[in-house]
Amino acid sequence: MEEKVEKIIEIERLKVETKNKVILDGVDLKIFKNSVNTIVGPSGSGKSTLLRSLNRLLDMDPSMDVSGDVLFEKRNIMDIDPVELRREIGLVFQKPNPFPMSVYDNVAFGLRIQGKKLKKDEMDKMINQALEDADLIEELGGNLKQGGTSLSGGQQQRLCIARALVLRPKVLMFDEPTSALDPIAKGKIVDLIRALKQKYTVILVTHDMNLTRKVSDYTNLIYEGKFVAKGTGSEFFESEIEEVKDFLSEAD
Amino acid sequence: MKTTNRIFNFFTFLMAIVPAVALISIFVFVFQESLPLWKFSGLSFFTTYLWNPGFQYQQPIYVHGILAPPGAQFGLDLFLLGTLSTSALAILIAFPISFLITLNVELYLPARIKKFMVSMIELFAGIPSVVYGLWGIIVLEPILFRNVEPWMAEHLSFIPGLKGEIYSGAGLIASGIILSFMIIPIVTSVIVNSFDSVPKEVKEGLFSLGATKWEVGKYLTTRYSRASTVGGTLLGLGRALGETMAVLMVSGAVTNILPSSFYSATNTMAAAIASLLDSALTDSTRMDLAALAALGVVLMAISLTVSLIGRKIAGRGSLRGYESD
Asked: ipTM of this predicted complex?
């Protein structure tokens, strides 16, 4: 299976530590193109840190010491301008974080700071497309002037997805995207993630095994900063590895 | 209710109203003291810049039914102009510096150094203003007089107000610079605090959309925490308007000569009250004292208004609701 699918990100011996603690202990991982790559594991196992090291958000935190290699389309991410990298690898957070401005301005934000001079109708088109891809346009009834923070939690989360999509990233990372949402809103995100993998590579971090079962193509269990099990969807869930069984029984 | 509890409640109530009562009684006292001036000068207090205590050793005369030394004339325009211009210059200098300090402290420096920097900035607020004034006289004025102002007069004379004769280095520019040093700690600490209170998700969200540090800082201070930024600046302005000692020392403390350029000596309401009080006390008609009290009333009204607005806006914190672009 691994051989047939193209790899978009390759992580080699990635180590992240602070003065007192090793968060990621030299991990290797391959992220496959146009698939949902899931990283599961208990709280504090280093999942979120892993995501933040892929788009170099960790650079912002001087207490973190990062070593090892991350290759994005065969290029070391340390050789890529972080601003450019973050546009290629979008990140959606656990807690929806729309900015206090209209829906339109929220989605336009990334385009505007890019400094590209877009014509009004071109911009409108891109924003509408992003909102459509994020499955939000219908619910808003075309009213893009309403405030982003006044939407429901699930809608806010999809607005944040649209905000990332409008930049046409190659990879979209989700950091526990459903844990702050109710079951119905959650269901919509599940459908959305499935649809998104047609166009994008998805990296999903979660400890929700239901969500993993529904969407994951490649599942990786991380435990205390190390991957202890990797496998395709069904392989993973039938695994005989002790940690997987433990984790599954605890998660369910 | 137990007696001790009642006594305790009574004293907490008493302590709670002390500031309000003190504020009101000070205002009433100063206003009362200024009453003869309003009868004597009327609106001309606001329309002239001349300030003349009159001949105190001649027989006082009645003007509008009020006893005053002959030749006395009081107008606040020069002092008002000085107060507003020095404070405006102070804000113009202080705001960009505070903004850059905040960006540097929040986005570029490691946490350990950040703590040290912030406490250093706060220490600045504790330096007595007379020390700033002394520094202004000994260090700043000579530099302005010998180096900076001649250069400005030569190269920037196309800007209105920057053409003119250089007198001593004391004046609007020195006052504005000294005042800006005094308010940078206030403005900076309000902006830094509001920056700290922005949720981590919002900061990370901005970065993950490909914003640079500069863009993140600009957006957070001018849009997301705009209320705190404006409020902090107004608090600083409130401080600058009322600052007395340092300005008195570096302003040139002029009366009756309107400034002709940025290099001219100036004076402020607060500095004028401090410097003219001594001679005013020798006026047997108390008119001179009433005139200074009137200056106090106007100054108090302006700086209280600015501080109140500043506090109100800063207290509102971030604008979380909808903002149209």
From this structure: 0.86
